[in-house]
UniProtKB/TrEMBL annotation:
<dbReference type="GO" id="GO:0046872">
    <property type="term" value="F:metal ion binding"/>
</dbReference>
<dbReference type="Pfam" id="PF07687">
    <property type="entry name" value="M20_dimer"/>
</dbReference>
<keyword id="KW-0378">Hydrolase</keyword>
<protein>
    <submittedName>
        <fullName>Acetylornithine deacetylase/Succinyl-diaminopimelate desuccinylase</fullName>
    </submittedName>
</protein>
<keyword id="KW-0479">Metal-binding</keyword>
<dbReference type="GO" id="GO:0006508">
    <property type="term" value="P:proteolysis"/>
</dbReference>
<keyword id="KW-0645">Protease</keyword>
<feature type="domain" description="Peptidase M20 dimerisation">
    <location>
        <begin position="206"/>
        <end position="363"/>
    </location>
</feature>
<dbReference type="InterPro" id="IPR051458">
    <property type="entry name" value="Cyt/Met_Dipeptidase"/>
</dbReference>
<dbReference type="Pfam" id="PF01546">
    <property type="entry name" value="Peptidase_M20"/>
</dbReference>
<dbReference type="InterPro" id="IPR002933">
    <property type="entry name" value="Peptidase_M20"/>
</dbReference>
<dbReference type="InterPro" id="IPR011650">
    <property type="entry name" value="Peptidase_M20_dimer"/>
</dbReference>
<dbReference type="GO" id="GO:0008233">
    <property type="term" value="F:peptidase activity"/>
</dbReference>
Amino acid sequence: MKLPVLKSRAFMDEFWEKHILPTLMDYVRIPNQSPSFDPEWESNGHMDRVVQLVYEWCRRYGPKDMVAEIIRYPNRTPVLALEIPGQLEGAALLYGHLDKQPPLERDWREGLDPRIPIREGDKLYGRGTADDGYAVFASLAALLLLREQGLAHPRCFVLIECSEESGSPDLPYYVEKLRERIGTPKLIVCLDSGCGNYDQLWLTTSLRGMIGGVLTVEVLEEGIHSGDGSGIVPSSFRVARSLLERVEDQNTGQIRSEFQVSIPQQRVEQAKMVAKALESTFFSRFPFISGVMPVTEDVLSGIINRTWKPALEITGASGFPDVRMAGNVLRPDTALKLSLRIPPTLDAKVASKTLKQILKFEPPYGARVIYEEEWDVVGWEAPPFVPWLHGALQDASGAFFGNPAMYYGEGYSIPFMSALVASFPNAQFVVTGVVGPHSNVHGPNEFLHVEVAKRVTLCIAEILAQVRE
């Protein structure tokens, strides 16, 4: 243990309250949606405003020997690059992003707004607070604490991108451009992940991949009277349901074997420990309506399902009129947007091709079936923690949360991880975050748990102080 606990907590509490939260609130007010959700992002200037806001904050509060730069290339989102000299051998790369998901204004509860920061106790509500606006502030605050306490840390490169919510298409380009400045980090810290509860530090050990696209079934040149054609013309929706049944058992949700993998025993054992920690709270984090039961009531099975099993969701549909305007028409076509989460170690490109073959093979009634592949996001499994890092993680969680660190797979995807792994294959990874129960990133009522964000910042400082060869 390097940091004095009480002094460090006092420093971090004051720094967050006085210097981070006011600017984080200003960040919430800027509608800088990720490029996938705002084609006019470059001309409307919101992304540039956000980057300039954070850049100016970094220049004001960052270490005096820090080099800060906004980097822009044509037709690409900007990045913020911060270089902080260190005293320990080696280098660390700290990652975050500033772009946001769509606001979903109408879905937020009364009294909340995605673009108006509102604090209720330890919760700061607003789009982008937990995903992932806090990361750059937390990264510098951790380093400032070490400097204030006179503790050494490695040279750090903080890289903040603006295309993560669009799949990080620009990140590999910038990593390659900045490779010499980044160096060869022995540690990569990512603050864009989740936590199973708010009582300890959570380390992400795996991420599911994701494949998906649009399935379209066509049966008619145009819609016809349903009384005239039903029973003769096959329903495009029924054909689509039949095709989906090839992938997913409609009664159990089980996905066919081509999309399964053998789960490493180490991950099963870690899941068992997580199940004990979350035994009484695991299912309550999901906003079930009254009377609805989960797919499984066994916590361990739920954890395995969420982290290492494939799962299908229909995230969008077209070819349907609004129910208030729907007449008795046999519709000519049905289009469904598919999102299939896949295990961390499954080859996403192969899985995407397999899905397309399954859906298009000999369609019922000879219906015209089109499947347009839209994405194949690679999953990720963390390399084993080296002894010094395992010790640092446990030291940090014990000191600043009072509980041991937990190792946990996440069910979602973080596209940039594949770019970082490809560029720095020998690095150790600390993938953590503040996305916990009910924080609801990507959905309505997103919030940052401020107290947990402070503690995670303290943990990152402790980890950086213990970096070893």
